[in-house]
Each structure stands twice: as structure tokens, then as C-alpha cells.
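input
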Amino acid sequence: MLRMGKLTDYGIVLMSYLATNRQEQHSAHTIADAVKVPLPTVRKVLKSLSHGGLLLSERGVAGGYSLSREPEKISVAEIITAIEGPIALTECVSDESHCEQETHCAVQTNWTRINNAVFHALDEVKLSDMLAPQRVPGLSPIRFYSSATMSNATIQDGEFHD
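output
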């Protein structure tokens, strides 16, 4: 089964909350209360998102957390990468591959193509798309690339390059 970790799921929830409430900075405690996630978990996720460059944090009485960019400019792929590291479906598409089969593997190229397609799909979904109500007929936040576009696509350090 292919599944994101729970911390990544929480990260998207926290980022969505901050995107919806952009008018001010929010403390970890306020965020934890608002999204009903335990404070230690919220602190851990906020730290990862800050280190990933997705959040700004300011210390002090008037401090707190806020988005580093507009929600339209933050992708779900960036959120996942900030928390889990570069997106790699298999060992051989990771920058830190230690697969013994890598030198003679016949399917590595195909795994790279699949990984690129998944990354690209996640990169196309923006934080702002996650805020859109899903009851709107015909609205789909996911935009797919054509096969021609994906044929030249590569991922380096968790980022898409065409």
C-alpha cells in the first residue's frame, strides 16, 4: 500500500488552516486547538514546514506562524517533501539509493517515469486547491499533464524539472 504518513496529513491540515486564516500569525497552541491535533505533534510538523521554507515563524508576544507565500504558490508536493523528504516511490528513484539491483535493473527507467508522474500530479495541486469546496460540479483541483510533457520530465532533490 502506498500511503503518506500521518504527519504529512497533519501538515496539509495545518497549512490549510493557515491559508484560510491568513490575516494574522498563529501560535502553535492556537493552531493545535483549532485543528484538534495534539500540541507536540503540531510543533513537530510546524518545525518541518518552517525548515522546508513553507512557513515564516516569528518569536515573541506578537509572534507566531504564517505562510511564506500565497497558497496558490505552494504545492502539495512541497508540503510532502518538507515533512517526508523527497518523493520517491521506490529505492531506485531516491537520491540516496542503496539498491543492489540498480546496476542491472530492467524496470528502473519505468519506475522513474512513474515517480515523475506522481510527483508532477502532486506538484500541480496547490494549497489553494485544497481549500476549494468539493461540492462544486465540474471542479477538480487536479490537473494532469500529457504524455508528451511527461516524457522529458525528471525529478532532482524532490523537485520537478522539464
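quick obs: The first strand starts at residue 55 and ends at 58.
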